Amino acid sequence: MRLKMASLMAALLLVAACESTPNGSTGTANSSGSTMGGSSGSGVGAEALKNPNAKPGSAEDFVDNIGDHVFYGFDSSELTPEDQATLDRQAQWLKQYGSVNVTVEGHCDERGTREYNLALGQKRADAAKSYLVAAGVAANRVETISYGKERPEVTGSNEDAWAKNRRAVTTIK
After folding, report:
1. CB atoms within 10 A of CB 152
2. The whole model's pTM is what?
3. Can you list the domains of the chain with their CATH numbers?
4. What is the pLDDT of residue 96?
């Protein structure tokens, strides 16, 4: 019996040690392919995002200190709690810098038709915009566009690449 328990524990430890997350962050992968716990939506721990040299209110400040990416599960435009935390930081920053306008770009992985992915990318961009507006950002400050699968961030035909390409990116105009 002890041997079975020891074997089971060793197998569990091995599986846990080999787990990887879709965007290289730490945390536990959830069912949508994003990670939760200890990381921001940009795939880097919030502590590591800090760039004290970025000019406050600049695009560099936004990307480095706030995070500009949120990620989605396969065939989904649902925001995870981690993505919501990133969008909360974005909304707070946008309210602080009221003259800054943004475009939310919706992206997909390479699977599916061009038309399907353009529609899904739009749903993803719209989901992020809706969250920002609900958090107090004026709707006329946030535009959306879908690039579908046309602008992958990572090349490759595997789950890791696909997970990194299923995203919405908030860009400063």
Report:
1. 17
2. 0.73
3. 2-172 (3.30.1330.60)
4. 97
Q: CA 141 to CA 44: how far, in whole Å?
A: 27
**Cα 144 from Cα 148, distance rounded (Å):** 12
**Tens of pLDDT, residues 72-95:** 999 999 999 999 999 999 999 999
3-state helix, strand, coil in the chain (%, to 5): 45, 15, 40
Between the CA of residue 98 and those of 95, 126, 136, what are the distances in Å?
A: 5, 21, 11
Question: Which backbone phi and psi does 90 adopt, to 5 degrees?
Answer: -60, -45
Q: What is the pLDDT of residues 145-165, one digit of tens each?
A: 999 999 999 999 999 999 999
Give the pair of three-digit tokens for residue 8.
């089971």
What pLDDT band is residue 29 in, cutting at 50, 70 and 90?
Answer: very low
d(CA 168, CA 123): 10
DSSP code of residue 26: S
